[in-house]
Every structure is written in C-alpha cells, then in structure tokens.
Specification:
By secondary structure, the chain is an alpha/beta fold. It has one domain (32-334): D-Maltodextrin-Binding Protein, domain 2, CATH 3.40.190.170. The protein has 13 helices and eleven strands. It has helices at 4-31, 47-62, 80-89, 121-129, 131-137, 182-190, 203-209, 219-224, 250-254, 258-293, 303-313, 315-324, 326-334; strands at 34-39, 67-72, 94-95, 145-155, 157-160, 175-178, 194-197, 214-217, 233-235, 241-249, 297-299. The strands form two sheets. Strands 7-6-8-5-9-11 form a six-stranded mixed sheet, with helices on both faces. Strand 6 (175-178), helix 6 and strand 7 form a beta-alpha-beta unit. Helix 2 (47-62) runs antiparallel to helix 10 (258-293). Bound molecules: (2S)-2-hydroxybutanedioic acid (LMR). (2S)-2-hydroxybutanedioic acid binds at residues 41-42, 98, 153, 179, 200, 217, 221, 242.
Amino acid sequence: MHTPTTFRKRTLLSSALLAACLALSGMAQAQSPIVIKFSHVVAEQTPKGQGALKFKELAEKKLPGKVQVQVFPSSQLFGDAKELEALLLGDVQFIAPSLSKFDRYTKKIQVFDLPFLFDDIDAVDRFQSGPQGKALLESMKARGLLGLGYWHNGMKQLSTNKDKLTRPEDVKGLKFRIQASDVLEAQFRALGANPQKMAFAEVYQALQTGVVDGQENTWSNIYSQKFHEVQKTIAETNHGVIDYMVVTNVKWWEGLPADVRKGLSEAMTEATAHANKLASDINEADRKKITDAGKAKIQKLSKDDVASWRKTMEPVWKKFEGDIGRDLIDGAQKANK
Ligand code: LMR
C-alpha cells in the first residue's frame, strides 16, 4: 500500500528526474549547435564572398548557440561540378552558384544568360525583385532546391590573350572558357569562337597555359583570380550578367525548427541587402586595380562597336525563346528603363 508520504516522495523524485532530463537535453542542445556549411567558388573579397561572411555573422548573432555557420570559399569544399549535387545530398546546406549554372534544373533561369538583355545591374535587380524573378526562386522546389535570394556580382567583360579586341571579328576561331550554360555556348558559337565549359577553379591555369585564349567575367572575378595577369586585353562589353541564387535543400530547410528557420531567413535577407549594396563598388574598385596593375589593357568600346557585338550575339535569343518563355524575356526587357 502506498502511504501518502511515499507517494509524495515518488512524485517528487520523478519530477526531479524529469527536470534533470530536460536540463540535460537542453545542455545537449546548447552544446551542439546545428552546423551549417556554406560553400562557394570565389574569393572572400568578392561580393559573394562578402555576402557569405555577412550571413554567417548575422545568423550566429540571431541564433546564439543554435547554429554554427562554416563558410568555405574558393572551391575549397566543392567546386562548380559538385556543389549542386552536394547540396542535394545534404553534404552542404547553402551554396550560391551563378545563375548560369542552373540549366540542368530549370530552363527558365537561362533568361539571365541572354546576351545584351539587361542594360545594367539595376535592371537585373528590378527583374529579380518583381513577381517573375521571385517566382524563379521557387521554380526548382520539385527538384529539391529552394532559392532564398539573389546576390549580385555584376556585368561581364570579355578578355583574350590578343592585342585587338574591339569587334566580334577579333574573337573568330578563338577558344573561350565558359560556365556550364548552353546559352553561353550558343553565344560564343554565334561569334564564330570555340566555347569550352570549364569549372571556375580551373580557369586561371587554362588561360595561363593557353588551353583557352579568353573568357568572360566580372571585374571582381577577373581581379581576384588574377586573370588580368594572363590576358592581354579586356574589352568593356558589359554584354551579360553574373549574378547568383542562394539555394538550400528544400527538405533540410523545411525540417529545421521554426525559430531557426526564421532566424536564418532574417539573416539571409539582411546579408542579401549588404552584399547587393557592396557589389557595384567592389567591381568598380577592382576595375581600377586592374588598370593600375598595368598588365592587361582595358579596351573601351564605341557605341558602334557595342552595336556590332549585340547584333552578332542577339540571334541566341530566338534559339532559347521556346525554353525560357517569351513572357520572361519580355519581363526582363521591361526592367530596362
Ligand atoms: C564563373 O564560373 O566564372 C563564375 O560563375 C564564378 C562565380 O561564382 O562568380
């Protein structure tokens, strides 16, 4: 028979046990934050490198003890060829590939690669912030990818190991490294050049050894990868854009505790604003550093020169209109002012 005293003692004992268990599990939680890996392929001083570091700082500040964000720049963890797969396998939780690298997952995002579609990065920003841009962030959910935001880099310039680079004729027959994008492949074929898809981490060496003659990229990527040291001329073509989508694994994201997901979303929004504010300044400063370094010549183009590049590249639009959709191309054009 339980006397009231033994009953009370037992109840007290089990509440103490329960409290101890709760405290222990709380400690375990406090001791083991969720480790979040953010992998990317560029240098830390670039717009994307800075965005990733800002995200880490903000996420850890908003969720103290709950998350630990590890950032791996410069293809240290995964390069271009592997990062999307790694994300889907759960080996990394955030990546920010350039928009050119999604064409295996959606044809629609190819809109960003169409040459001379956007006048400048502000137009790109307007398109991304509009309903069509926002819808693209969610367009790969069925493939396991969720876009959390767009990060800017900037407009692309063209570089080669030749002295003359003002007109499309100057690149005929030359070999160019391109990102893994069918649109970019078609763009270089339209110029009569030979495109070669290649991971970002391999470009410097390919330029240095003459495996390829040229490439296209932003000032910040050209400077931070030292491409200007192994190229003779950089033409200021602004013919396209390199921007990023920060993506995560849908299942992982949806499985997070609600407070963690909320904190990470807020950190992402703020890091996005921070990176996007920096991007143009970083590119401008790097353009100047390239000029000051005096290795590659920066070739300014006349209006007529630019028109000749545009005319030669523009047939690419028609080729991809079916895959991308006329509505997206129209929407992007409307973002130009
Ligand atoms: C490239 O491959 O040239 C770029 O997409 C690299 C990057 O992430 O900016």
